[in-house]
Design brief:
The structure is a homodimer of 120-residue chains. Chain A has 120 residues and is mainly alpha-helical. Chain A has two domains: 3-78, Orthogonal Bundle (Arc Repressor Mutant, subunit A), CATH 1.10.10; 79-110, no CATH class. Helix content of chain A is 60%, strand content 12%. Chain A has six helices and three strands. Chain A has helices at residues 3-13, 16-27, 35-41, 47-59, 78-92, 97-110; strands spanning 33-34, 63-68, 71-76. In chain A, a hairpin with a 2-residue loop joins strand 2 and strand 3 (71-76). In chain A, helix 1 (3-13) packs antiparallel against helix 4 (47-59) and helix 3 (35-41) crosses helix 4 (47-59). Chain A is elongated, with a radius of gyration of 17 Å. The structure holds a DNA duplex (30 and 30 nucleotides).
Chain lengths: 120, 120
DNA sequence: CTATTATCTCAATAATTCTTGAATTGTTGA
DNA sequence: TCAACAATTCAAGAATTATTGAGATAATAG
């Protein structure tokens, strides 16, 4: 993830409908959802509007698509999301662990450390 | 950090000049830099342009300002940055540790565990 | 008090992004 | 093949955001 890619990703995430789509798709991961189903979940947004936002997200690498019959199934690109977090933190941490540490703590509590099977 | 705040933060970070300002200020943390000095670092951008972007960033909670004599000193709001990471990951991790784990790994390597002089 | 420096504010314009609706492409089943 | 469905593409207009330059505000030095 370089600055240009991060810029695209941030732009993609800075629009309400698109941010909601991403959250929806993360929840629906890894199966994904058809464009139509996503539109329904977005208060019945029009298909051309969905297309516009979905292709924007795809350009930014935040979602992926595949055809399944008449439908096109979209799914979250999880590796781009973690790449974005890494980019943000790479910036933050230039000698300033006071940013990273709270972020680490937040991450740890959110990513349950697979209790029991701890290993570095 | 709620969705609305995250939306503002992403919008603020989705503009090249502003993303560069944030990175610059994270590097200059915690002292900060005067608006003029930031402008110089941004290829000599005009003062009104700087003002526009700096106030946008301040609105989004990504930077803070204080007056020092004639200058206004801006500094990175590190807690908002880590809040944003937390927001992203809270989303990502809804039952999908496969996102979080790479992100955790990236964070760990970026936030060198203060070898030697470690002290909470 | 005046001149100078640092920054902000405002209005106009330029540029970009979003929405809408109509037309188009691709897929399936009868 | 044809009708129906799912989604995309395109063009026009609306809305938002960024840049510029002129003028205002605030602080300091002389």
């Amino acid at each position: 993830m370089n600055e240009k890619q991060a810029l695209h990703a941030f732009a993609a995430l800075s629009q309400e409908t698109r941010l909601r789509i991403v959250r929806q798709l993360v929840t629906a991961s890894p199966e994904g959802m058809s464009a139509g189903a996503i539109g329904e979940a977005m208060d019945g947004a029009s298909s051309s509007r969905m297309s516009f936002h979905l292709s924007h997200l795809e350009q930014a690498g935040l979602v992926e698509s595949r055809r399944d019959g008449r439908s096109i199934i979209y799914s979250a690109a999880l590796t781009t999301l973690s790449g974005l977090v890494e980019f943000l933190m790479r910036d933050c941490c230039q000698g300033h662990p006071e940013v990273c540490n709270p972020a680490m703590a937040a991450l740890s509590s959110c990513c349950e450390p697979t209790k029991g099977t701890s290993h570095v």
